[in-house]
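User: For a teaching handout, I'd like to show students what a predicted protein-ligand complex looks like in token form. I'll give you the sequence and the SMILES for guanosine-5'-triphosphate. Please answer with just the structure.
Assistant: Understood, here is the input followed by the structure.
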Amino acid sequence: MSTKEPKDAEDLKRGFEDTAKSLGLSGIILQSSAKSRIDYDRSRDELDDAGFSVEAVPVDNSATELQSISKGQSIAAIIPAYNEADSLPEVITATAPYVDDVFVIDDASTDDTEAVAREHADEVVSLPKNMGVGGAVDTGYRAAIRSGYDIVIQIDGDGQHDPSYIPKMLETMEDRDADMVIGSRWLNDSYQDYSLVRRMGIKFFTAEVNVLGGVDITDVTSGFRAYRASMLDDLGRPANSHWALEQTLEAGRKEYIVEEISVPMPPDTDGSQFDIETFAKYPPRMMLTTLKTLLLR
Ligand SMILES: Nc1nc2c(ncn2[C@@H]2O[C@H](COP(=O)(O)OP(=O)(O)OP(=O)(O)O)[C@@H](O)[C@H]2O)c(=O)[nH]1
Ligand SMILES: [Mg+2]
């Protein structure tokens, strides 16, 4: 059950109860916030004590297997979002069970992204002007570091990244003692659905980072990542264009351990930043980013 007006919520609740009673049901569990998964066992126990209807008890993340994977370390998800009002609720809801808190960085969207984020996320940072993906993710890193989280998950707000891969990322981080884990579309078939130009670009710059940064990865432009906050704190602030190249190269050169897992990632046909102009500017800007990282970091 999710609605903005409290009065409507009460009406809706009564409506559900009346319908359930008329159907002869023995009780109902109501969920007013879609932020967490429902702990059905505990909700049923509460229902036994409370009567006909009860508010759903959320899954307690600290009790889940996930906490044993991440050894009790605190985890924040950061979601950069620019005009993602349609996809954002589902992304937040699906991410929340795997982390302690979900931060949305609204990059001065012109649609309802901010309102949607405030309804579903734990924390919302609203940027006063559009900063681009690099600026938005860096704002998220700083917010998570300031709040003392141990691990940061970065996931896009457009629905391209499947949050159910987060446990695998955390497991890989622990098993391989990694500082960064990247979700790669090159370790499965999904890269084949991207345009030839885009694939060539990703291939080329990934090879470049592998050679110059001493890492061994397949998908440097992926924005689905897990980080140790201590490493993020040690890296410089990535500039807006090509934050992923800059960040991965710097991490490699500073000898942080960068690992990957396979994550299927369909191309985004809606609202992609990869228009003709971006393609044209891509190679020189990537080169500049590389030089800057090599010389200044
Ligand atoms: N395009 C764009 N995205 C932004 C901006 N600020 C934050 N974002 C968010 O950053 C994330 C990545 O942006 P995308 O445009 O999806 O970039 P991408 O996934 O590398 O490219 P596509 O495969 O074309 O989607 C999304 O969640 C965006 O909403 C911005 O100024 N422009
Ligand atoms: Mg995208």
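For the handout, you might add this sentence: The pocket of magnesium ion (ligand 2) is lined by residues 156, 158, 160, 268 (CB under 6 Å).
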